[in-house]
Amino acid sequence: MNDPFLEKHIHDIPDFPKPGIVFKDISPLLASTEARIKMTESLVQKFKKDNINVVVGIESRGFLFGMLMANALNAKFVMVRKPGKLPGELIDQEYELEYGTDTIEIQQNAIQSNDNVLIHDDVLATGGTAAAAHSLISKLGAEIAGYSFMIELDFLKGREKLPASKTHSVLHF
């Protein structure tokens, strides 16, 4: 069951970015100190005993709470980004979209084989991006403790695409 306080800070924007899509706008949540604190606590609560030492945030809205979660878990923060945005030696992972493919990248030295990683993104929709992040981190040999999302769009069944790990979403729509 959704927390009514947090839910009221998520606004539906119809027909954005294109007709037929109802965009979940987190801007009101970001504008509220109380809501940000409560969301951060809700995101990390299921993982506090998992000895997380790396939080991976997926571009770009996954960076917002990923950093706050890393602070709350006393962990380092690592970015997973779209191509051309990170310097240095990179590894990449292509993944399927509804119409075509996309790619994400991570710095090769950002995660070590003994790291225990929590993958975070703002929304779990079809699961493709989170599954691709899992593949990237697995290539680096790290342990994946789980996934954390602010919002899960249950009707898209993205959870089914994620390799077996603990998956926690704060709000469900």
Automatic annotation (TrEMBL):
Known catalytic reactions: AMP + diphosphate = 5-phospho-alpha-D-ribose 1-diphosphate + adenine
InterPro entries linked to this entry: Ade_phspho_trans, PRTase-like, PRTase_dom, UPRTase/APRTase
Residue ranges occupied by any Phosphoribosyltransferase domain in the UniProt entry: 38-146
Pfam annotation, one family: Pribosyltran
Name of the protein: Adenine phosphoribosyltransferase
GO CC term, one of those recorded: cytoplasm
Molecular-function GO term, any one: adenine binding
Main location: cytoplasm
UniProt subunit comment: Homodimer.
Compartment(s): Cytoplasm
Membrane among keywords: no
CDD domains hit by this protein: PRTases_typeI (cd06223)
Family to which this protein belongs: Belongs to the purine/pyrimidine phosphoribosyltransferase family.
EC number of the protein: 2.4.2.7
Gene Ontology process terms (BP): adenine salvage; AMP salvage; purine ribonucleoside salvage
Domain of life per record: Bacteria
Organism field: Nonlabens dokdonensis (strain DSM 17205 / KCTC 12402 / DSW-6) (Donghaeana dokdonensis)
HAMAP family reported for this sequence: Aden_phosphoribosyltr
Function: Catalyzes a salvage reaction resulting in the formation of AMP, that is energically less costly than de novo synthesis.
